Structures are given as C-alpha cells and as structure tokens.
Amino acid sequence: MEKLDPTTKNSEFVRKCRTRLDDKSDVIALILILLFCWAITYSILGDRVGLGSQTVSLIILFLASKIAGYLISLLKITPMAAMVVMGVLFKNIGFIQLDSNFTQFIAILRVVYCQLAIMNIMLPTGLGLDFSSVKKMIWMVLNLAALPVLAEAVGIILFSHFLLELPWIWAILLGSLIAGVSLSVIVSCLFQLKDLADGVNKGLHILVVAVSTINCIVCIAIFGIILGIIFSTDNLTMAILHGPIALIIGFTYGGSLGMICRYLPCANEQYLVPLRSLLLGLGCLTGAYGGQALGYGAVGPLGCITAGFVASTGWRKQGWGSSHPIRLNFALLWRFFEPIVFGLLGMEIDLSILNGRTIIFCIMTIIIPLLLRVVVSFLSTYSSNFNLKENVFIAICWIPKTTLQAALGAVALDKARALNDEAMIHHATIVLVISVLSIVLTSPIGGVLIMQLGPKFLHRTIPEDTNL
C-alpha cells in the first residue's frame, strides 16, 4: 500500500482548518471588535468596566450566546432559541445581577436594537420582493394576511384574558405581538429552498414573503398603538386619539425619511453607501427617541417600517438587489446585536416567580392559537392553484416566531418599571414570558419543518423568473 506523504497530510489539515476559519471569519472579526471596544473603554473608565463589572458579564453573555447559537445551528436549527436559553441560564444561576442604573441603560439600548431589527425585516423585503408578481396574486396575499393572523390573534387574546387574567387591552397588545411571524427565519429558509428551485414556479416564495411582510407591518403598527394607549397619561379622549395621531406622525415621518434616503446623496456620489446607511439608521433612531420624548412611542417602529420600505423599494427601482451593501451593513450590525438582543431577553426571565400552572397556561396561549392559524391558513389556500402538499407547506411557514418578539417583548416591561406600577409590571411580565416561550418553542420547530418538508412538498422546477 502506498504511504501518504506526511507533508500532504499536514497540508490537507491546514486547508480544512483554513476553510473552517474562512467560514467563520466574520464572527471572529466581530468578537475582536467587541474586545477592542471593551479595551478602549477600560483604558478610559478603568475598574468601572473591569473584569468583575457588569459590562464584562454582558460581554461573556454575548460570547456564550453566540457560541450556543453556533452549536445549535450545526443541527440545522435556528440559533435564536439557544441564545434566549443562555440568557435565562445566566440570570437564574446568578451569574449576572444588573443594578437599576444598568437596567435603565439596557432599556435605552433596547430602542436601538428594536429599530435595527425592524430595519432588517423591511430592507430585504423592499429590495428583493417582486411587486409585479405580488399584484398577480393580490387577493390571495390579502386573504392570507388577514384571516389566519386574525384567527391566531383572537385566540391569543381570549386565552390570555381568561387563563392568564390579562385585561383586554393587555391581551390585545399580546395578541398583536405574538401573531407576528419571523420574517428573518422564513426568508432565510425560502432562499435556501429557492436555490434548489423548490416551489418557485408557482410563485409560492413570493406569496409567503409578501404575506409575512404585511403581517409584520400590521402587527408592529397595532402593537405600537396599543402600547401608546396603555401608557398614555392623557384623558380618555386623547388616549383614544393617541393611536391615530401616532399613525399619522409615524407614517409621515417614515415616508419623508424614506424618500430622502432614496435620492440623497445622488447615485454617483463616492460615499453613497455609508452616507445613505447613516441617513437611514440615524433618521430612524431620531424618530424613535423623538417620538418617546413627545409621548408617542409608536412613532419609532412605525417610522422605521415606513422608511425602510419606502427607501428600499426606491433603491430596487434604481437597480439595487437584495444583496446591496446598505442592506448588508444593517445585516452586519444585526449579527453583532443578535446575541445581545436574545440573551438580554432571556435574562429578563426570573424562574423563581413563575409556577407550573402559569407556564402551562402560557404554553397553551401560544400553541393552541398557532395551530388554529395553521388550520385557517390551510383552508384559506384550499381552493387555490396550489396542491395539497403546497397548502400544508404554506401553513407551516407561519410557525416560527423570533425577531418581533425579541425586539418588542420587553418594551412594555421597561415602561412599566419606569412608572413603578406593580399591576402593569405583572401584566408586562406575562407578555415577556410568552414572548420568550414563543421563541423557544416555535423557532426551532418551524425552521426544521420548513427545511425538511420543503424539498418533499414543493415541486422542483426552474421558472423563467425567479425573483423573490
């Protein structure tokens, strides 16, 4: 038998190592950037951010969440659930105890990553969705964007009110939040299936992404309006008008910002990408913090939705595709914030104050309305041009919950803590617990079902137009 040259073995080993490092080079770069930021901060502030500080504890949480997400992704499972679980573990084993000042800082930071999460929902859709194809199936889109979502939301409202004893207004807030699907998981899975040409010929991908986008927009809008009404300190008349006023301000501001970002700076500007990225990002943050200062917290999410969508649809007409650098800039920021977002969300869960009965009722509030949504979705597409398996696949696409629940799940709790209202804190804690459970329960199951059933249920044909 011919012996292998040891140098050949070594070179093969080195090649494999370099390939693995290349695959994760962006993650390594992000970790190094984080460590450099900490080193600079430590040089300035000293022991206040030293090794025993809360800042370092959060950095460890970031690294642990990132590693947990990576390990679970090796099993072809979405990483968000593992990041949330890591946050829950860190909180309940006592590894991190945040003081009131740091909690307030996190509440401020939450506004930033809420806007970033929304931007990462809207930009890929605006840049990648083929609106001419959407128009051809507009009634199917509107049908799926209304009936199944309404069925799930009503189910959540009823279960949370009668089982968890949430007031009706809080139950509506919860329903609008949990009924939002995970566009990030859905788009990621569908892009992988699209590469295999699964189901593209019937426009199934376009249908699912369009419906998911409308779902996210409506849920964010309703959540913002109801949140404003709950925490409004005005009289009843102004509280009722609070929602419409926030809608008008948010959509007007967001539309104006989106139009500005479409055309400024001009297309031949040397620094076009960074300038438009900064304009859009800082403009959305200005709307968020400005809206809060004016007492209209819903302006931030509504403005961000509108700005991201208006800007990205305009850029698409200018020839920019879904992989344009501006979209990738926000995607990179999200990769950095993602383990922080999901880890901190998990850290809000104190298992010592929860009992088995409450957890069971919370799970029922998630699962039963979700199953109802799946059934209604299947019935809504039953008479369409999709076959039985494709109808089932469309229905299971609504299972994953991640981004909206992570970005908005703790917002009400932050506001309740600021008011130091025990009743509101209790209601907001229920909203948070259900948000966390919805991520842990649905994102792994939904992602696996989409990826496993897609190649089996969808007809594989190369279409003439494969734009998503």
From TrEMBL:
**Main subcellular localisation:** membrane
Any GO BP annotation: proton transmembrane transport
* Top-level taxon in the UniProt lineage: Eukaryota
Q: How is the protein disposed in the membrane?
A: Multi-pass membrane protein
Q: Which InterPro entries match?
A: Cation/H_exchanger_TM, CPA1_transporter, Na+/solute_symporter_sf
Q: Which UniProt keywords apply?
A: Membrane, Transmembrane, Transmembrane helix
Every copy of the Cation/H+ exchanger transmembrane domain together lies at: 65-440
Q: Name one GO molecular function term.
A: antiporter activity
What cellular-component terms does GO give this entry?
membrane
One Pfam family per UniProt:
Na_H_Exchanger
Membrane-spanning segments? 27-45, 51-73, 80-98, 104-129, 141-162, 168-191, 203-231, 243-264, 271-290, 296-315, 327-346, 358-380, 392-413, 425-450
Where found, per UniProt? Membrane
* UniProt-listed PANTHER family: NA[+]_H[+] HYDROGEN ANTIPORTER 2, ISOFORM B, PTHR31102
Name the family. Belongs to the monovalent cation:proton antiporter 1 (CPA1) transporter (TC 2.A.36) family.
> In its UniProt entry, what is this protein called?
Sodium/hydrogen exchanger family
